[in-house]
């Protein structure tokens, strides 16, 4: 399920290494790098240890945050950027 945000509202994330049992372990392969597969929709960065990840949405659309340490690749992390700015008010019976 994709995370939903709007233009200008960043999404924070972390990237971690898990062993075969699913337990978090230190990354010994190198520095972790995050990116976006749709840089026109938003950009992604993180610290070399995978902490402090930020996806910055730029326009409406969909993107996947991708992460690698040069040897391992994380599964894509989907983000949908929607226009969540109120445009009208609607009155209805309750």
Structure write-up:
The chain has a single domain, classed as Immunoglobulins (Immunoglobulin-like, Sandwich). 0% of the residues lie in helices and 40% in strands. It has no helices and nine strands. The strands form three sheets. It has a four-stranded mixed sheet, with no helix packed on it. It has a three-stranded antiparallel sheet with strand order 2-7-6, with no helix packed on it. The protein has a two-stranded antiparallel sheet with strand order 3-4. A hairpin with a 7-residue loop joins strand 6 (42-45) and strand 7 (53-57). The protein is elongated and about 60 Å long.
Strands, count: 9
The major sheet is characterized as: 4 strands, mixed
> What strand order characterises the main sheet?
1-9-8-5
Bin the helical content.
Answer: under 10%
Order of helices and strands: EEEEEEEEE
What is the fourth-level CATH superfamily?
Answer: Immunoglobulins
Average pLDDT works out at 93
CATH architecture: Sandwich
Strand-helix topology:
Elements: E1 3-6, E2 11-13, E3 17-18, E4 24-25, E5 33-36, E6 42-45, E7 53-57, E8 61-68, E9 77-82
Parallel strand pairs: 1-9
Antiparallel strand pairs: 2-7, 3-4, 5-8, 6-7, 8-9
């Amino acid at each position: 399920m994709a995370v939903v945000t709007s233009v200008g509202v960043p999404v924070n994330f972390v990237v971690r290494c898990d062993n075969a049992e699913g337990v978090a372990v230190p990354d010994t392969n190198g520095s972790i790098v995050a990116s976006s597969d749709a840089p026109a929709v938003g950009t992604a960065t993180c610290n070399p240890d995978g902490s402090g990840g930020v996806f910055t949405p730029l326009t409406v659309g969909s993107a996947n945050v991708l992460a690698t340490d040069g040897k391992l690749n994380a599964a894509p992390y989907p983000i949908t950027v929607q226009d969540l700015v109120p445009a009208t008010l609607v009155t209805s019976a309750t």
